[in-house]
Amino acid sequence: MNDVTLRLSGLKKTYLKGTPAEVQVLRGADLELRAGEAVALVAPSGAGKSTLLHIAGLLDTPDSGTVEIGGQDATGKGDRTRTAMRRRDVGFVYQFHHLLPEFTALENVVLPQLANGVSDRAAKARAMDLLGRVGVADRADHRPAALSGGEQQRVAFCRALANEPRVLLADEPTGNLDPGTSDQVFAALMDLVRESGLSALIATHNLDLAARMDRMLRLDGGVLRPAE
Ligand SMILES: Nc1ncnc2c1ncn2[C@@H]1O[C@H](COP(=O)(O)OP(=O)(O)OP(=O)(O)O)[C@@H](O)[C@H]1O
């Protein structure tokens, strides 16, 4: 169906580790994300959620199975095509912000747009709009080191959404924040997701946050199942 933004089918991934010889992290993981939905990904530590997110975001390849984004199958595509798909369609947020330290908050949100061919003027306007929506417009000219942890993550969300991706993938996006800040920053992220109409797959250990999403999936034993 057209409104499936991300489809993962039968993903398998084994790492060769030396001794013991190998670890089978994904054993046939399936997922369909629809436009506009926010899905929580919960998993015990080491279950493979980072592996799943990296494969879904075309940063890594599965041993078998397929990844489709916006109806386009990435299987067997070369690096150039995968990079183009990722730049156009995927936004990433990590536990740590990964903002470029020598650039301001505004520049961090502008740069990915310039890389995608957006004009400087349009990129700045979109960046200021995004920063305003998460309440950090007044920090636009500060470098990351001058921002609080919560502000850094808000800027990281704006950067991830700068190119209007179809899919947002987040790996413990509030895992590095104290509980009060985590709650506020998560609310800002959910507002952005709702306003943008994109789909989001958000890994979290926090079951209260997970319960605020549309549904919850558990990664355990290498497959995805609905979680209560
Ligand atoms: N490049 C690699 N080479 C070998 N083993 C790896 C590699 N990457 C991950 N693993 C192993 O695969 C398993 C899953 O790792 P992954 O990072 O995906 O888990 P995770 O669910 O994100 O864990 P956490 O919640 O602790 O971050 C772990 O046993 C890990 O040690």
TrEMBL record:
<feature type="domain" description="ABC transporter">
    <location>
        <begin position="6"/>
        <end position="227"/>
    </location>
</feature>
<keyword id="KW-0067">ATP-binding</keyword>
<dbReference type="InterPro" id="IPR027417">
    <property type="entry name" value="P-loop_NTPase"/>
</dbReference>
<keyword id="KW-0547">Nucleotide-binding</keyword>
<keyword id="KW-0449">Lipoprotein</keyword>
<comment type="similarity">
    <text>Belongs to the ABC transporter superfamily.</text>
</comment>
<dbReference type="InterPro" id="IPR015854">
    <property type="entry name" value="ABC_transpr_LolD-like"/>
</dbReference>
<dbReference type="GO" id="GO:0005524">
    <property type="term" value="F:ATP binding"/>
</dbReference>
<keyword id="KW-0378">Hydrolase</keyword>
<dbReference type="InterPro" id="IPR017871">
    <property type="entry name" value="ABC_transporter-like_CS"/>
</dbReference>
<dbReference type="GO" id="GO:0044874">
    <property type="term" value="P:lipoprotein localization to outer membrane"/>
</dbReference>
<dbReference type="InterPro" id="IPR003439">
    <property type="entry name" value="ABC_transporter-like_ATP-bd"/>
</dbReference>
<dbReference type="InterPro" id="IPR003593">
    <property type="entry name" value="AAA+_ATPase"/>
</dbReference>
<protein>
    <submittedName>
        <fullName>Lipoprotein-releasing system ATP-binding protein LolD</fullName>
        <ecNumber>3.6.3.-</ecNumber>
    </submittedName>
</protein>
<keyword id="KW-0813">Transport</keyword>
<dbReference type="GO" id="GO:0005886">
    <property type="term" value="C:plasma membrane"/>
</dbReference>
<dbReference type="InterPro" id="IPR017911">
    <property type="entry name" value="MacB-like_ATP-bd"/>
</dbReference>
<dbReference type="GO" id="GO:0022857">
    <property type="term" value="F:transmembrane transporter activity"/>
</dbReference>
<dbReference type="GO" id="GO:0016887">
    <property type="term" value="F:ATP hydrolysis activity"/>
</dbReference>
<dbReference type="Pfam" id="PF00005">
    <property type="entry name" value="ABC_tran"/>
</dbReference>
<dbReference type="GO" id="GO:0089705">
    <property type="term" value="P:protein localization to outer membrane"/>
</dbReference>
